[in-house]
Model the fold of this input.
Amino acid sequence: MQRITRFLKPYRKASALALLMLISVVAIDLIIPRLVQRTIDEGVAKRDMAVVLNTSLIMIGASIVDTLLAIGNTLLAVQVAYRFATDVRSALFRKVQTLSFGNLDRLQTGQLLVRLTSDVNQVQTIVMLSLRILTRAPLLLLGSVFMLTVLSWRLALMMLVLLPTMMTVVWFFTARTQPLFRRVQRKLDKLNTVLQENLAGVRVVKAFVRADHENARFEQANTALTAQSTQVMQLLAGLNPTLTLLLNLGMTALVWFGGRMVIGGGLTMGEIVASVNYLQFTMFPLLMLSMMVGPLSAAQASAGRILEVLDSVAEVQERPQARAVPDVTGRVAFENVCFSYNSDCQESVLRGINLVAEAGQTVAILGATGAGKSSLVHLIPRFYDATEGRVTMDGVDVRDMTMESLRVQMGVALQDTVLFSGTIRDNIRYGRPDATDAEVIAAAQAAQAHDFIMALPQGYDTLVGQRGVNLSGGQKQRIAIARALLVQPCVLILDDSTSAVDVETEAKIEAALEQVMNGRTRFVIAQRISTVLNADKIVVLDRGQIVAEGTHTELMASSPIYREIYQSQLGNGDSHNG
Done:
């Protein structure tokens, strides 16, 4: 928790003012029992109504001031806590944007959502309570001990025996519940992951009639969260009654011994009443803290989970000596590249990759599912870094280029098409927000998207539903290709981005790309061999290794694997098969 409080620095003045108001509230609270004592000893006992009236008026005035200060403290505490939470959420979101694909592979979407929402809310609650109850409680406790000592050191000594016992009880429950709250948050992670997957894939669930299966998955995660939460609350259920019992025992002891002192003349009636009030003031903070044990433990666990993300180091780092390379021709070379997701080439996805794409060439990559096609092209824009060997752009190791200058040269249409909420126009110019409407239309025409866009009710101003739900798979892919083309890249990467497009449209896209990308480098991953027949270089991957490389004519003569792929798809003259 201490490390995350750095986000409070911009609000130090507001926090200090809130605490000053809180101190004033505590001071007024501590004065009230002495005023009660004065009312009894100097007013009631002596039958002096003037003292009773004057003291009562002072108490009313003090209560009004106390109320105003408490309201001001609450308003400031809420303001600081919510702004603090806003800053933490922003920092988390910005941090996620800096993480590499490898980091995001481990930090699942469901987990990140919980940390950006539930975990931040837990910490926000404690910040707000710290400026109110959690600060007020110890101040009230210390002040009450002091005031009670001034009244009667014997009664204060008795209370000081009771106080450590109650604090030990609070510590015991806190130590037991904190690890349990961490488990609760992990169960919440699991629940949120199942929920996020199910909502994103609800159409698949319905299509395969798997609602019962998904209900069972959710029920299992939901039940596990309920069981873990119940375990925590069952443990906490004994805390407040235990403290109440100790408080009542202390109250009984104080009345017993204090009463004997009043009878013996050692205390006045007003002093014993004030002492009882101060005992309540002393024990009340502990009761308040007992109610805060749960939120405190949850916030401690949540703060650790937030810091886990904030402390994450992106696997792909920009080297200190990296330089901007604004103009490249687009020559890409893989030099003895090995790549593994766990940084161990013993379990590599790619091995011994040596490949050159000359500037302006179209390089097609074929291979079975899991052969490493996407992993290969992801190394070019440094979504991942090569485990061994290097990838160069115009002879410069991509790790020696700033990531901005590297990626600004590229247009990428990923295998999983992602569209954002907004208009189709905004989605196409996502990589170039300043692009003109004419440029947007030209990119859409090259991607064979213009006609279907214009057929929509609002054309380019048509709103894209969540994850592009109101568009077909082929339409989404064509918008993604248009988005990649609009940035006018030196290197274009199409990762199986026409798989949902019919053969005729795909041929038109290929023809348009020949013109638009003339003199620029293209990497095309395709499942249909008809897509790559005219490529300058065709690369066949098998189990992470290049097993064939050349033009279509060369590979038909030299590569059995390529011939097998060709025969399976086009051998019977059926160019639509695949």
User: Anything to note?
Assistant: DSSP finds 19 helices and twelve strands in the chain. The radius of gyration is 35 Å.
